[in-house]
TrEMBL record:
InterPro entries: ARM-like (IPR011989), ARM-type_fold (IPR016024), Quinoprotein_ADH-like_sf (IPR011047), WD40/YVTN_repeat-like_dom_sf (IPR015943), WD40_rpt (IPR001680), WDR55/POC1 (IPR050505)
Stored PROSITE patterns: WD_REPEATS_2 (PS50082), WD_REPEATS_REGION (PS50294)
PANTHER family from the UniProt entry: POC1 CENTRIOLAR PROTEIN HOMOLOG, WD REPEAT-CONTAINING PROTEIN 55
Name of the protein: WD40 repeat
SMART domains: WD40
Start and stop residues of the WD repeats: 12-53, 260-293
Organism: Nonomuraea jabiensis
The organism's place on the tree of life at top rank: Bacteria
The entry's keywords: Repeat, WD repeat
Amino acid sequence: MSGDDDRYSGPSEDHGDAVTAVAVSADGRMGATGARSGEIRLWDLRHGLLTAYVGGLHDGPVENAAFIGNARRPQLLTTDGSASLWTVTADALEWRRLPRDGRRLLTSADREAVLRQCGDFRWLGAFGLSDRHDPAAVGRTGSGLIVVSGDRGLIEAWRQPPRERPYADAEVVWAFGGKDDAADQRLMRCCDLWRLVVSPRRGRVVVLDAETGIVVTAFTPPARPTAIAAHPDRPLVVLGGRDGSLSWWDARSGHCLGRVQAHAGRVRTLALATGTDLVMSVSQDGTVALWRLHGRGPAGRFAPPMPAASRELTQVAGTPDGRCWLIGGRGGQVHVLHWSDHAGLVPQRVGRPSWKMGGGDVETLLDDIRHHWDDGTASAAAVRELASGDLDEAWRETAADALVDLMVNGADPAARETAVIALSGIAKDRVTTALYQMFDRHDGHGSAGRLLAYFTGEDAPTTEQLIANLPGLGNGNFLGVLTSATLGERGATAVPAVHAALRASPFPTREDADYWWRDETTKYWLLYALRQAGADAAPVTPTLLAMLYDDEIYRDTRHYAKVTLQAIGLPAADTIAAEVRRRADLLVHDENGEDEESEGFSLLLDTLLGMPPAALAASREVGPALEAVRRRFGNGPSTYEENGELVQVYELHLADCIDETIAEQIKE
């Protein structure tokens, strides 16, 4: 058949959409595939035949699939953000949606089966953490902790509530990573009887003790991992690379056990036959290969007879003995392969794509965007290709998530700016929040000015023009973020004009409600510009302090003044600490000559506590100010008992917290 045909005449039982999840029963008799459209299909793997299919019950793409129960009454668990349980009988396929507390409907053996087959299960309701956002991957430890990874680098271990208190809150036991070590954690896995957590980071793979979160070892794979398989019972990890390579690692020592060049294209997914030393890899180039741990060559290969550009594979699952494998592709094709020592890999069913795949693969582009945060050229190229195509509605939310990740975590300003422009075309409602996150993480570089010029067509507006534009920019308008951030990028040269505009702007009282929203929004943009200017905005500190204490001003404006003081850093810390000391040493008497406590300590100390730790540690004024506070409030413990209740001296508590912050900063 010609590669120019729009459709293939392959078997009609192939999916009409990309296969996103596969599962094989432990005895190899039954398989299941889930599609991006939400459709589920069941297969007789002995004969390679479709036995049942159903669509329209899932709300989105099928994310995971795993068989649980026993051979006489098998059940299939699938997820699409929430979970469904399918019971397979001789003449019917029964379906029910599991509730958010569905973990109580699954036995420990069921949960074990899920984790052994999938490696992770991205529906936390099944494990008792229903109040958490959707994770990138989930695992568990030997003691029952649930390990949750996020798509921006954070890994947390949670303890489930005890059975006698099933609705109690879960608690975090340990956490690792975060924004300073941002890395997509979709490939996080647990292995070695759930004692180790394998976490791909930026440029390396870190192995953590599952019970404590302490780093056990780290190693650097030969290529960026795009697929992972972790043995549930052994400290064995197999990594598939972007370059098509396959490497085996001892997760406890970090020692490489072997490496092969498995495919011509990136490895899309891996599956271990956990009862053997076999692992199957499937690739973007459409080929399948079965490998032994110490083998020099593949134990079997399979390449479907169709144009290479139309056979890309996405999912694989197999039996523990490695005898039966179920494989799905981006074109909806489904292959069933049987393996034996003497015959190798024998196709029981060869599927055909039900549609011709042209252009770039969205999933591959998103993978590049997520993982090339340190490679500006590669990530920007992937973003441009993604934005140039006609993006299907089903991909828009996922694409927006990846673009936001790049804006927040990308190392290259040009790549971040490209992501902003692409996001404005894909999900404009998310641009404002994403810009705040980007500017909070990355200062300077002129990105705000360049982006403002792109979206407005004005190359070099004056500071006065930018300030004049602010009243017309509503609170949710991303041009307001760019305009105020552009003022902030101009630093000390723009501060006097911004300061003057802030002082001239009306500050309505609580009774003046007619125009307060417009005015307060304008003041917010001015304060945001000063916040972006950082230490250059130090001359505005007295005005900000006056706003902080004026309780007639709208409360959010006072909060923004506080945050701006904290962004100024060391100069503001010195000024505030000097004011704390002045007030602490000031004796105020009432009409009877008794001492009155000076007001405002807690507000000023709370503002100090939110300062960058480095600024607190560098300030020469903070230490004497804290000593003055302790003299003022008795220089004793921060709590005392009154009428049988424990009362906290809040000012002393804040002073203790500031001292602890400084001590931790000095230690680092």
